[in-house]
Design a protein that fits this description.
The protein has helices at residues 3-8, 10-14, 19-32, 46-62, 140-146, 199-206, 209-219, 229-232, 242-284, 289-301, 303-306, 310-325, 339-355, 386-389, 438-441, 490-497, 500-509, 521-525, 534-578; strands at 89-92, 97-99, 113-118, 134-138, 153-156, 170-172, 181-183, 187-192, 236-239, 382-385, 390-393, 407-413, 429-434, 448-451, 453-454, 462-464, 473-474, 478-483, 511-513, 516-518, 528-531. With 589 residues, it is an alpha+beta fold. The chain folds into three domains: 1-42 and 242-336 and 534-589, no CATH class; 44-240, DNA methylase specificity domains (Adenine-n6-DNA-methyltransferase TaqI, Chain A, domain 2); 360-532, Adenine-n6-DNA-methyltransferase TaqI, Chain A, domain 2, CATH 3.90.220.20. The radius of gyration is 34 Å and the shape is elongated.
Length: 589
């Protein structure tokens, strides 16, 4: 791929997942390898610059401003992980920088000189200052040595967590911070021996993917990542001529500015799309049927605009479910058999099952009160409690004492297996139970599985068991609901419980602790369920299946589009990792 082709596809690359961030990383990688701008044979060679740096270093030592340091090992050019352009030299980072005095400090005190402290949290992953600086007090005799100068580099030594590796992230002190802040003892303060070396070039270098790889390989052996100057100082890098450093910095700044514009444009476009999507979905859920129809037509005509990210498709799925359970997704037919007829059949069947001993008689559930009606029900619908149309039981409790009983191991379902609307059977564990309890806990095809809780998303997740595994049980954190009569429709119950209205009931009824929630069997049995006629239920379920298939198709297209963008990005990265092509043409992107 040529530089011109890269420039042509720049905006496409930016649209890839994390595309702008990957472009930023690519720009930095090409910059520190000397492949972002052209070399100029008139530039003073980097070897001359290096001699000036060494002279400045000796001067600082003689003046007592820095201590004489142990010589660094001679570098082999092969230690630099890329081919150096003409005029560059291979050096160790410690030949350009030295580690300034650490800062410890005390709490603010009138007798001390107070200064702002740059902590690990003040250095972002992109190498910029963030958040508020803390204040500490320092002895007047030491503060002058601690204050950061313009051009100093502040490098994170330790993130303090193996899960949050920020070691190596580097901030550059400019005019605003200089003389006003000090570095904490978890942040290295690196100072240049000579101002002939462009500080911004070193800052970009230390935040480049090449630097990140070196740091990760250096600190990976520690329980908590801890970057030491003794290791970083020996890192082999390529040093360009001073004038080329300036050109590189200017080009990087220009391209990063372009990335900023693209990022802002993407963010603005995403916010507008989300706002429009919310407005359409709100109109879709409005009580006025004509408005809902108009909103649905607007959504249908603008699918490509509204739904180019998974978050919006997920919101559409929820809107479809909500319209379905409100009876506003398909037209009603006055010829349908009234729901009251079905409910009478269920009551009669329930009594028969109790008389036959196939169903345990339970305390009658309280009548549904007016404040429990979630919305105005369509004509002919009725509201019933879930416990009046299903038999709900708990599952197997783990860790019971089974001494003296004849036992066997059987597969069982956990909360993790029951997702919202489907089962994840990738991993099914086994549990030991008495053999005579198999019939009590064994699942039958058509059973509904409803999760007790966990975090908020786990409460009330419901799916249908279709007999995928023989002699499968369910854990006590997964309720089993078995229909008294099949005419109620399992698909309808799953649709309602997983809808926004169903989820709202569980959120209000569940027992809540910090970040956790759970429901008990009583709350589950009392859940109010709207029931339309059998014929209308079939029409609604059929329509939902049709629209969900459309959502699936839409998500597949999004996935394919993102995959294509990622493939293009990978091709570009590979091209510039293996060729000497320049990308000066990016200026015109």
């Amino acid at each position: 791929m040529s530089p011109e082709s890269f420039a042509e596809h720049f905006h496409i690359l930016a649209d890839a997942p994390n595309g702008v961030q990957k472009l930023r990383e690519m720009i930095l990688q090409l910059a520190v390898q000397g492949r972002l701008v052209s070399q100029d044979p008139k530039d003073e060679p980097a070897s001359v610059l290096l001699e000036k740096v060494r002279a400045e270093k000796e001067k600082l030592i003689k003046e007592g401003k820095i201590r004489k340091q142990k010589p660094l090992p001679r570098i082999d050019p092969d230690e630099v992980p890329y081919k150096l352009p003409e005029g560059w030299v291979a050096i160790r980072l410690g030949e350009l920088l030295y580690n300034g005095k650490a800062s410890y400090g005390q709490n603010p005190n009138p007798e001390l000189v107070n200064a702002k402290v740059v902590k690990v949290s003040n250095i972002s992953n992109d190498g910029f200052f963030q958040g508020q600086f803390a204040n500490r007090g320092y002895a007047p005799s030491e503060i002058s040595e601690l204050l950061v100068n313009g051009g100093d580099l502040l490098v994170v030594k330790s993130s303090g967590s193996a899960q949050n590796v920020r070691s190596g992230k580097t901030a550059l002190c400019g005019g605003e911070e200089a003389g006003d802040v000090v570095a904490s003892n978890f942040v290295m303060r690196l100072q240049r021996f000579s101002n002939e070396v462009v500080a911004t070039f070193l800052w970009r270098l230390l935040n480049s993917p090449i630097s990140r790889k070196f740091v990760e390989e250096t600190v990976k052996t520690f329980t908590y990542p801890n970057l030491k100057w003794s290791d970083l100082s020996q890192w082999g890098i390529g040093l360009p001529p001073g004038e080329e450093q300036k050109r590189i910095v200017a080009k990087v700044d220009q391209l990063m500015g372009l990335c900023d514009e693209l990022e802002a444009r993407h963010q603005d476009r995403a916010e507008k799309r989300m706002t429009l999507n919310k407005a359409c979905l709100k109109a879709l859920a409005a009580p006025d049927g004509d408005s809902a129809e108009t909103a649905w037509q607007r959504i249908s005509k603008n699918f490509d605009l509204l739904y180019d990210c998974p978050e919006n498709v997920s919101a559409l799925r929820q809107a479809i479910l909500q319209l379905a359970v409100q009876g506003r997704l398909v037209p009603q037919d006055p010829k349908d058999e009234p729901v009251s007829v079905l409910l009478e059949k269920i009551r009669a069947e329930k009594e028969n099952l109790i008389k036959e001993g196939r169903l345990r008689k339970q305390k009658p559930l309280a009548p549904i009160q007016p404040d429990e009606v979630p919305y105005e029900l369509p004509e002919g619908w009725e509201l019933v409690r879930l416990g009046n149309v299903t038999e709900i039981v708990g599952g197997v409790t783990k860790g019971r004492k089974l001494t003296g009983k004849t036992t066997a191991f059987f597969p069982y379902l956990r909360v993790a297996n029951v997702q919202r609307g489907y089962l994840d059977l990738a991993e099914i564990k086994e549990i030991e139970i008495p053999v005579d309890e198999l019939l009590k806990y064994r699942l039958e095809p058509g059973d509904l599985l409803i999760t007790e809780g966990g975090d908020w998303d786990k409460v009330g997740r419901t799916a249908i068991w279709n007999g995928e595994v023989e002699n499968c049980l369910h854990q006590n954190h997964v309720f089993r609901a078995r229909l008294i009569m099949d005419d109620v429709s399992r698909q309808w119950l799953v649709l309602f419980v997983n809808s926004p209205t169903g989820r709202s009931y569980f959120e209000g009824a569940s027992k809540q602790t910090t970040n956790l929630a759970s429901i008990n069997m009583t709350q589950l049995r009392h859940c109010p369920i709207p029931i339309p006629s059998l014929a209308e239920r079939e029409r609604i379920v059929g329509k939902v299946d049709q629209l969900m298939a459309l959502c699936d198709e839409l998500e597949d297209k999004l996935t394919q589009s993102q995959s294509a963008a990622e493939t293009l990005m990978g091709a570009v990265v590979n091209q510039f990792a293996t060729s000497r092509a320049r990308i000066s043409a990016l200026t015109a992107a």
